[in-house]
Amino acid sequence: MSRPVYIVDGARTPFLKARGKPGPFTPVDLAVQCGRPLLMRQPFAPEAIDLVVLGCVNVIQDEMNPARVAALRLGLGDETVAFTVQINCGSGMQSIDTAYRYIRDGSHQMILAGGAEALSHAPLVYRHEATEWFGDMARARSPVDKLQTLADLRPNFFSPVIGLERGLTDPITKLNMGQTAEVLAHRFNIDRATADAYAVESHKRLARAQESGALKTEVLPAFARSGEAYERDDGVRPDSSLEKLGKLKPVFEPPYGKVTAGNSSQITDGASWVLLASETAVEAHGLTPIARIVDSEWAALDPSIMGLGPVLASTPLAQRHDLGVTDIDLWELNEAFAAQVLSCLAAWQDDDFCREVLGYDAAFGRIDRDRLNVDGGAISLGHPVGTSGNRIVLHLANALKARNGRRGIATECIGGGLGGAMLLEAA
Amino acid sequence: MSDFLNTLTPDAGPDGASDVPRADGASAWRRSDAKGVVTLWLDCPDTGTNVISETVLRELDGLLDTLGGAKALVIRSAKRSGFAAGADIDGFADIGRDAALDLIRQGHAVLDRLAGLEVPTIAVIHGNTLGGGLELALACDRRIGIDGVKAGFPEVQLGLHPGLGGTFRLTRLIDPIEAMQAMLTGKSIHDRKVKKLGLVDALVPERHVDAAIEAAIRGDLPARETGLKAGAMRLSPARSLAATRMRQEAEKSAPRRHYPAPYALIDLWHDHGGDADAMQKAEIESFATLLESATAQALIRVFFLRRTLKSGASGASGIGHVHVIGAGAMGAEIAAWSALRGKRVTLEDVKLAPLGKAVKRAAKIYEKRHLSGIDARDALDRMMPDPDGLGRARADLVIEAAPERAELKEKIYSGLVNTMKPDAILATNTSSLRLETLFDAAPDPARFAGLHFFNPVSRMPLVELVSHEGVAAETLDRLAAFVGELDRLPVRVRDYPGFLVNRVLAPYMLEAMLMLDEGMDKERLDRAALAFGMPMGPVTLADQVGLDICLEVARSLGRGLDRPVADVPDWLARKVEDGETGRKAGKGLYDYDKEAPPETASGDDEDARIIDRLILPMCNAAVECLREGVVDDADRLDAAMIFGTGWAPFRGGPMHYARVRGDVPDTLRRLEEQHGPRFAPDPGWDRFA
């Protein structure tokens, strides 16, 4: 039997731009920062939560199974099971999907599902040769052995590789994520100016949402030990313009590429939680659902065009529920790259693509920009990889409610050639 | 978690010791025999804390006769709280020199006997192992520490030095400079430092104690090494040099004329550091002499006063979650301290910046208190900045620490109606407003009271618990228990202008203002007060408190009291208007860019005329408070002044000082003739002093 699953609340930290050195919070610190007030505003005690699932890609050494560390630090008690899930950029949505399925199947009543990522804490990694040398040195017993090993030392052993850079490179195709966006831009004829214009609009929308108070219950301030209080996503540039973005050089494929730092998502730290509840829990605790999770889908494709993941994951949802392009009031399509988002839109408008790949008779249709990423996205607020999937579901639920929308889809592309999507209905 | 799982939680303490039978004929010792090893468990009856009393030592002496062919003797404690908190101070109160000498010599004889036993002797120490407790452990051959052990000699805080062999045994066992440092500061040494100094031969969790004891008996514990420095210190010239340095250092924090003990200890080591027998004899003599000194008598009284206040904090508060409104300095300190003591805390402020600063302040406090990384993290996790006031509805106690404006507080209180939990308590940290003007606005006056913390909360142990006519007794009892859970000392006071502590302290600063007005040099005033033994001169204190607050206190006392108080000079109000409000503004009575207030004073700075004018009005106000029933008795009043303001502890508080002096009412009358009616002796002098 399939039971209804509700999103009853959720909150996230401000997304904090990585500024070249470790930021003030670890992944679990971030999860605690937004988790504490989220739990404090519930009418039930934290013990009522059955399970904690957290998405996190770059787990740091001190926080193995960050879900469990976060649950204990949030005071959920020794007996609360907690596990971490990882599907790269989809991890924060995978946690919700896991929770959704447990509650739907009736084994759990209330689950805290989140995402946490501190990309600024991504480690510096020693080269493989250097690690081998350290091992040899440790094994060398006699002074002669030691001297011999010492002679093998090479200066470049100590120039570390930035772990994050490796993480953002596809291990199968060796393409950097930005390069996969270049591939799509080329395939769907996305030009630089259109990509830049999309990015400018992302900044304007986030700035507007921040000013209007639309994010007030969703983004909760975080407080660092240094005394700093972080109130807002700090990567936003309200004064962004085509002219300014036009000056930036392509970062991934210079000099002719179209993807720049300005029209890509930002590297940030941030965490987000969504609280899911069954009908029973909603009644028992007198909760007010924001939205109901109707369905979810994961899809896979060639890693070098991973940016089309949203198209492949969302379309089956539309097809299963017989929804046309106008039936979906709001979309949260994670802005990994402006060119990638625009390519997804283009694919849905492409007769051939929709026929050959999606099984439609003709194009799915044009998704109106007014329904898409209405309060900005990863280009303006950043993309803490394990968190973004969680944030877009949470924000979709809040945005549906704020705009009296009925239905919405949150979807993301996932490095490695995957896509995830979730269909919500306002409650 | 089920009870069964709880019992599996590692190393909660010496479990099962209470099943061990009492040793024959002993009240304070339990005894177990296993595999030829006799274990004596110290377990003083009817208390949670062991102290080394005459009975403990006498019974130990008897038990040493019954070891038979034991292959080893282990001494440990059956109390969870620790090994032993020190010697039995009560046994030393009010006894003459001869009786004291007898008592000490008997104690030495027992410990010497223990030290001289043929069989290996092993002390297992955990938790607080202080004073006489540590001396007992030092008389054993080897010591095994359990993780978390705190060892130290706090005697100096009572105006004494170790008297049960601690001086010669510790300086012989570990680096003598470290040993002297520990005894001179009275600070406890924690955990790994105890091992590093060589105070224990092994530091293990409870689960490895038996294995460590076996290793000690086999002789497998690593031998101690005596360092080069320790060797050199056996030579008199080296000690001379070190002792001179120690005396200079001691003079900075504890001048000899007020605090003789550190100097007696330094002399002891200087003269006899190379000869244990001579040092032991001298220790006994010196200890008996110190015990008779006025300083020790006053400080021992302070020790008892602390106990009296602490006993007012019994029971459980039922308060797990504290919500603090207002993240100013006081609110932030209260929040940080409550979280440190295990409470769940929400700290509310309308602005984010002070909440951020509060987190930083908390992190600093935890660092200063040497919290481990995870303990500091957990305390910070427990303290949640709460700009939306989510904690109001969850808290068992709401502490309002908002700016001192009645209308603001009333507005906050009205926002709490129908929001707070039904049995939750509201407390105000106000220092200058009367509760009688506030309690009507509280959601329920029966569950409303004053909880007046002192700044900085992390260092000042006192909390005034202020009642009013509408408060329920249960509210006060729960708040007193809460203060105890915070490891602070509650003193119950009545709603009165300035409550107790500020009412008594105010004349100290106000009189200083008048003396400045008369042209007296501010540094001379401060030095005279420091020389008297006050922790801070009145001018510096006024700057520290804030001249704006001083002005407000002066005015509210003027309005609220039916006795005359010092008039405030006009220039003070002008200074406040100009923004020169004291230390926080960088300029007040001192200009902190150019001047540094004196921090120490010498005997030359003593000045009876200044002291009489600064100190005696405090004594007079103290009598007024007793007469008005602001506080129960003179002991509690003295305790409140010492623990709330640092009032010269070796003088025992304003009432003790007045009694010892004897001439205070007469002197006040003379001052009245010279300076006006504010010095008129209170009508209560005959009754209360």
TrEMBL record, chain A:
The membrane spanning regions, by residue number, are none
| One MF term in the entry's GO annotations | acetyl-CoA C-acyltransferase activity
Q: Could you tell me which residue ranges the Thiolase C-terminal domain spans?
A: 287-425
Keyword terms = Acyltransferase, Transferase
Q: Which residues form a coiled coil?
A: none
PROSITE patterns found in the cross-reference section:
THIOLASE_2
> What InterPro entries does the entry give?
Thiolase, Thiolase-like, Thiolase_C, Thiolase_CS, Thiolase_N
Enumerate the active-site residues.
Answer: 89 (acyl-thioester intermediate), 383 (proton acceptor), 413 (proton acceptor)
Tell me the ranges covered by the Thiolase N-terminal domain, including all copies: 5-279
Instruction: Give one Pfam family.
Output: Thiolase_N
Checking PANTHER family in the record gives: ACETYL-COA C-ACYLTRANSFERASE (PTHR18919), BLR2427 PROTEIN (PTHR18919:SF151)
Q: Which family does it belong to?
A: Belongs to the thiolase-like superfamily. Thiolase family.
Q: Name it.
A: Acetyl-CoA C-acetyltransferase
Q: Which organism is it from?
A: Pararhodobacter marinus
Automatic annotation (TrEMBL), chain B:
Domain (3-hydroxyacyl-CoA dehydrogenase NAD binding): residue spans on this chain: 321-495
Q: Which reaction does it catalyse?
A: a (3S)-3-hydroxyacyl-CoA + NAD(+) = a 3-oxoacyl-CoA + NADH + H(+)
Involved pathway(s):
Lipid metabolism; fatty acid beta-oxidation
CDD domains membership: crotonase-like
Region spans: Disordered: 1-25, 584-605
Superkingdom assignment? Bacteria
Keyword Membrane listed? no
Could you tell me the Gene Ontology terms of the biological process aspect for this record? Answer: fatty acid beta-oxidation
Gene Ontology MF term list = enoyl-CoA hydratase activity; long-chain (3S)-3-hydroxyacyl-CoA dehydrogenase (NAD+) activity; NAD+ binding
A Pfam family annotated for this UniProt entry: ECH_1
Q: Which residues form the 3-hydroxyacyl-CoA dehydrogenase C-terminal domain?
A: 498-592
Q: Which family does it belong to?
A: In the N-terminal section; belongs to the enoyl-CoA hydratase/isomerase family. In the central section; belongs to the 3-hydroxyacyl-CoA dehydrogenase family.
What is the protein's given name?
enoyl-CoA hydratase
